[in-house]
Amino acid sequence: MTGAATAGAVGHGEVLVLNTGSSSLKASVLSRSGACLWREQRNWSAAAQEANAPEEGLDEVLEGWLPEALTPWGDGLVLAGHRVVHGGERFTAPIRLNPEVLQALEELVPLAPLHNGPALRVMRWLGGWKPDLQQWACFDTAFHSTLPPEAHTYAIPASWREAGLRRFGFHGLNHQHVAETLARLRNDPDGRASLRLISCHLGAGCSLCAIRGGRSIATTMGYTPLEGLVMATRSGSLDPGLMLHQLRQGLTVEALDHALRQESGLLGLSELSASMKDLRLGAAEGHRGAQLAIEVFRHQLLQGIGAMAACLEGVDVIALTGGIGENDAALRDELEQRLAWLQPFELVCVPADEEGVIARDCLAAAARSHGP
Question: Among residues 59, 132, 140, 278, which one is catalytic?
Fold first, then answer.
């Protein structure tokens, strides 16, 4: 076990990465070279804050699991990196946490309440448990800070745009990982070549990113992670008039929000499951809802890929990543068949590694902050 870092500097120990989701906490310990030394996930439930709830709450996971799980690493941890879903317009690079930054992140919670809120709770808990440990935040929106104005601007009133209502894009940490991985494979570690890449992050959340020369130039998610492709329980893009209709019919804003985020997507289409694996099994047995869900998912995905290809003026590589992208062989076969008109292009699979990106970027940012 390596020793602790000297005060105010990054030492030779390990990096803790905490990826806080809306109902899960993924903790990883990585070496300075990026090798994963330990990884584990615990699920938690917001409902567990209520008395006598059977599930664990986030505080219970933090107090009852994480300290013991990290005991083997002792004082060898030199830095902690957090995944933050929404960084707004201000945060476009890793940043070290301090009271001012924490307050600014608090103001961003309404943009992604299911993710940013729990992440802040984890940051504050860790600050109390290990107050001398450097904490850094990395942002899923940061990779998309290179979007040109025509790609991030909504056609809405000027006063709305001036209030910061724009496309931000998400899954940026993994889209960045995909771009960097392919750059290394092509002996272009700086990503300066003009490779035209479509990164397809397909999991519980789904988004596409058009990447040219290592930079994001278009993406499917918008102001929130609700826009774009069909997802596990999220609707993806809808006619705004449909939502206005539901509100005029008496649906509350809270009920509408819940329906679009928790009851839609693959689950809403199939009325069976939010899992693509389950839907494939159901479809094979003739379940019409499962078949419809797969068909709608594929249709929206193909539309999105076509749009990204148009932004890139062609495509050299389409990369599949995320739980569905990495594991659904049937989808890969379907895409090869349905996208034959785009040839020539290479269809590849790149395993997701948000934690590796966070560790590398935070270490690099910490080293820069301390100078040569």
Answer: 140
Task: Residue 269: give its domain's CATH number.
Answer: 3.30.420.40
* Spatial distance between the Cα atoms of 2 and 320, rounded to a whole number of angstroms: 37
**SS3 category, 5:** coil
Sequence-ordered list of residues with C-beta below 8 angstroms from that of 38, at least 6 positions apart, any chain: 28, 29, 72, 73
Confidence of residue 314 (pLDDT cuts 50, 70, 90): very high
How far apart, in whole angstroms, are the C-alpha atoms of residue 168 and residue 142? 8
For residue 163, count other CB atoms closer than 10 A to its CB.
10
Q: What is the predicted pLDDT for the residue at 3?
A: 32
Long-range contacts of 60-64 (CB under 8 A, 24+ apart): 61/25, 62/25, 62/121, 62/122, 62/125
Q: What is the pTM of this model?
A: 0.90
Structurally, the chain folds into a number of domains equal to 2
Phi-psi region of 119 (alpha: psi -120 to 50; beta: other; left: phi over 0): alpha
Report d(CA 150, CA 186) in Å as an integer: 30
CA–CA gap between residue 267 and residue 270 (Å, rounded):
5
Tens digit of pLDDT for each residue in 120-151? Answer: 999 999 999 999 999 999 999 999 999 999 99
201 shares its domain with 343: yes
Could you confirm whether 140 is annotated as catalytic?
yes
Q: Do 242 and 321 fall within a single domain?
A: yes
Alpha-helical regions (H) of the chain: 58-64, 66-69, 99-108, 113-129, 149-152, 158-162, 172-185, 240-248, 253-262, 265-270, 276-284, 288-312, 322-327, 329-338, 354-369
Q: CA–CA separation, 97 vs 84, rounded Å?
A: 12
Is residue 295 situated within a structural domain? yes
What's the pLDDT at 372? 38
Q: Provide the residue range defining the domain that includes 62.
A: 14-139
Residue 155 in any domain: the answer is: no
Cβ-based neighbour number of residue 298 at 10 Å:
16
